[in-house]
Amino acid sequence: MNVGRVMQLFFRPGKAGEEEDSEPESDLESEDFDDDVVDPSYVLDEEGEEEQEEDEDLTATLHAFQGPAPKKRRKLVGSNSAKRKLVGSNSVKRKLVGSNSAKRKLVGSNSAKRKLVGSNSAKRKLVGSNSAKRKLVGSSPAKRKLVGSSPAKRKLVGSSPAKRKLVGSSPAKRKLVGSSPAKRKLVGSSPAKRKLIGSSPAKRKLGTPTRTSPTPSTPTRTSPTPSTPTRTSPTPSTPTPTPSTPTQSRSRLAQTSESESQSDPWKTEKDPDSVPDISRFQPRRQPGIQLETLSTHSPKELFQLFFATDTVLKMCKYTNKHAARNKELGKKYKWVDVEMDDLYKFFGLLFYMSLVSLCRIQDYWRQNHIFYVPFPAKVMPRDRFQTILWNIYLSDLEEDEQNDKKGTPGHDKLARVRPLYEAIRCACQAYYHPKRELAVDERMVAAKAKTGMKQYMKVKPNKWGIKLFVLAESSSGYTIQFDIHTGKTGAIRHHGLAYDVVMNLIQKSSLGTGYHIYMDNFYTSPRLFKDLTSMKFGACGTYREGRKGFPRVRENDFTRDSERGSVRWIRQGQLLFVKWLDTQEVSMCSTIHPAFSGDMVERRMKDKDGSWTTRRIPCPTPVLAYNKNMGRVEQSDKLIQYYSTLRKTACWYKTLLLHFLDIAATNAYVLHCELSSVKSRQPMTHKEFMTVLVCQLCDVDMEGNPRSRKSDHIPVAISEVQESAQRAPRGRLRCKRCLLEDDVRRDTSWKCQACEVPLCLLTNRNCFFQWHK
Question: Measured between alpha carbons, how far is residue 288 from residues 389, 457, 673, 765 in Å?
Fold first, then answer.
């Protein structure tokens, strides 16, 4: 018999001096008692039968020693440990048997805490807290920390750390949230220091005068007296600014501080101004038309100066090759190779359509209809006109294919119009030399074609299209030079697009010196005007305030009380900056005008009583000159828009071809007016000139009847001079056939009456016959 087990069963755990029935729950809760006495899972194998017999004997002995077990203990035999622990507990605790640990811990707690069983930890912690804190359950940690804080701080939840730190700071500091560190450090500093933010280090050092360190003077002692020894103070040295060369800075703020420090205050019209030195006008050729003024020039002949026969012959060659390529690709239409006369008739019909406007091209050939017009059908069939319009080409196909390959060095965006483009530009400069006043402006050609050269200008009537930069004569509107803007290129622009445009349009070798160039605020800059002055060109134009290099002085500037007609000006060497207060403030820059010459203009102004009166107010000299010369350059655009051949096409080079026709017709009309003024004759109106040009290009009379070609192609004298002394030098031109076929320059005094082409007519050289064969 195992004595140890008997002792273990006999002496149960508990406090000394306690009776068995006083704490029944402690006996049942003991794990040793449960495991050794009433555990039903105690299983023996075959080899442990002797132990089983011993246990039975021990159990019998225990029962005999202790007596029968309590009623509650007998019922729990075989139950789980959790249920055995609840013997003698209250009903609330017994109901929680099998529930989770969180619910069991809440026995006896308040109802609010018991409802939170199963909720998240954040919600359980808020039991008993205020309503504001309980609403933040599940919110961000930053928002929960702000419970009870100020409204300004609560609004900053989710903002940047820099902004949250500024709660309660000064308004100046709060505005700097997100600015650069250099700007934030300057809060409370002087205005001069704040203006230098972002400038170069060299410029910031120049913001305040550099002082040389004072030469230390040796302190001299006076002979001390026995009573009070005295020492004389050192003589202070005068700080002298160290001379330094200002470094050029790209910072606008640095440029502003420099211009404000160097510019004088604004002056008024009462202050005298000196007349600047103006370069002498020395043109390369005699200004005006560069043609024989004694001979007659028909509108067709003037037009052929720009669309010469050799240029048109090349266009015929390129067009025929392009049409043959389209036929190979499967285009189904009848094609006959185009000739020079066909192409001139095609141009004539385009000008006719600009005079007589119909909705569609097909309407010009409609019969038995209210839109019926008989003239186009007499000149060319409809299908012939359309096939020429579809296939017209301005360059060589093989060269374009090589140029269009990706990675081609020196890729030319204008390759498809380059031959005609260069021919028109050369002709514009060859047959007319401008007078002194010129104007630079941009022109927009409306285009719907898909091309990378298409631009947008909201201030133009045609907002979308191809942009041209034009140099024109101010008095007549003659187009002297023009450039097509192809968009961004890889070329490095040191001074900007506007600077390069003006310098490319103005060629000193072809124009001469002493010209006055007028431009708008897109081109005006101090650097450009200074460089034009060094090239002996004058310049005048409006400018935009705030740009680099222009004065920003506020001293004696316009105020709200300034009257209409007030003038302010500043002169910086050759540059004159003028501001004039009209209905709006007008800013001008000039190198060729004084500020004010006493000129007055009339303006209708409203009096205090509400009545309108006409008053004379002062007007600066540059403003009057600009309005006079820059306003007339719009005459060229007006002449082009009156009778324009422009039509919507899918190919951008066809759009430029139509605009080249407009330039040629407009310049031809200007030449006609110049010739008429030289001969003291009344020139034709623009419409009459275009009508005659259409008839001559289409080879019909004014009634629309075709001319007899055999009777018209006869040789006539070029000059109408009757004096034999002047007939030879004035009435001779280059033979067109000798120049094209033999590449030799030979002068002749004969031309074809119908073709208006100078041809040799000699016994040993009959170019007239060979030309018409």
Answer: 36, 34, 11, 35
Dist. CA 431–CA 499, nearest whole Å: 27
The rounded distance, in Å, linking the Cα atoms of 466 and 487 is 10
723: DSSP letter:
-
Does residue 486 contact residue 453 with C-beta atoms inside 8 Å?
yes
Confidence of residue 424 (pLDDT cuts 50, 70, 90): very high
- Residues 353 and 581: their CA atoms lie apart, in Å, by 46
| pLDDT grade for 508, boundaries at 50, 70 and 90 | confident
Q: CB neighbours of 112 closer than 8 A, spacing ≥ 6?
A: 127, 128
Contacts of 265 (CB under 8 A, 6+ apart): 553, 555, 556
In this predicted structure, what is the pLDDT of residue 153? Answer: 59
Residue 429 above 60 pLDDT? yes
Strands 437-446 and 516-519: parallel
Residue found under tokens 């501080």 = 257
Q: State CA 230 to chain mean position distance.
A: 74
In sequence order, which residues have a C-beta less than 8 Å from that of residue 327 and are 6 or more positions away?
335
558 neighbors 585 (Cβ within 8 angstroms): yes
Q: Is the pLDDT of residue 234 over 80?
A: no
Q: Report whether pLDDT(379) > 60.
A: yes
Asked if 317 and 420 touch (Cβ cutoff 8 Å), the reply is no
Supply 555's token pair: 């001293």
Classify strands 516-519 and 538-542 as parallel, antiparallel or unpaired.
parallel
| Contact status, residue 647 vs residue 447, Cβ threshold 8 Å | no
* pLDDT reported for residue 170: 60
Task: Report pLDDT digits (tens) over 22-65.
Answer: 444 444 343 443 444 444 444 344 444 445 555 555 555 555 54
Handedness of CA 343, 348, 349, 351 (dihedral sign): positive
- Predicted pLDDT of residue 606: 86
What pLDDT does residue 229 have?
38
The Cα–Cα gap between 758 and 745 comes to 12
CA distance 196 to 208: 10
- What is the distance between the alpha carbons of residues 568 and 78, in angstroms, rounded to a whole number? 112
Mean pLDDT of 342-357: 94
* pLDDT confidence of residue 320: 95
CA distance linking residue 600 with residue 304, whole number of Å: 46
Please tell me whether residue 50 adopts helix, strand or coil conformation: helix
- Pick the closest to residue 701 from 690, 713, 712, 692 (CA basis): 692
Q: How many CB atoms lie within 10 A of CB 570?
A: 20
Distances (CA, A) of 256 to 18, 261, 560: 101, 8, 23
> CB neighbours (10 Å) of residue 163?
14
Q: How far is CA 481 from CA 177, 421, 429, 440, 518, in A?
A: 53, 11, 7, 10, 15
Tokens 């004696």 sit at which residue? Answer: 556
Asked if residue 424 lies in contact with residue 664, where contact means CB atoms within 8 angstroms, the answer is yes
**pLDDT-wise least confident of 376-390, 479-493, 555-569:** 479-493
Compute the distance between CA of residue 635 and CA of residue 667 in angstroms, rounded to an integer.
Answer: 12
Please list, residue by residue across 245-267, b when 16 or more beta carbons sit within 10 angstroms of its beta carbon and e when fewer do.
Answer: eeeebebeebbbbbbeeebeebb
CA dist 203 and 185 (Å) reads 18
Q: Where are the alpha helices (DSSP H) in 481-589?
A: 497-505, 508-511, 526-534
State how far the Cα of 477 lies from the Cα of 85, in Å rounded to an integer: 114
Up-side HSE of residue 350: CA atoms within 13 Å toward CB?
24
Q: Under DSSP, is residue 181 helix (H, G, I), strand (E, B) or coil?
A: helix
For strands 282-283 and 512-513, give the pairing: antiparallel
pLDDT at residue number 294: 79
Integer Cα distance of 643 and 211 in angstroms: 71
The per-residue pLDDT for range 277-330, each reduced to its tens digit, is: 889 999 999 999 998 887 889 999 999 999 999 999 999 999 999 999 999 988
- Here the tokens at position 107 are 């026995």
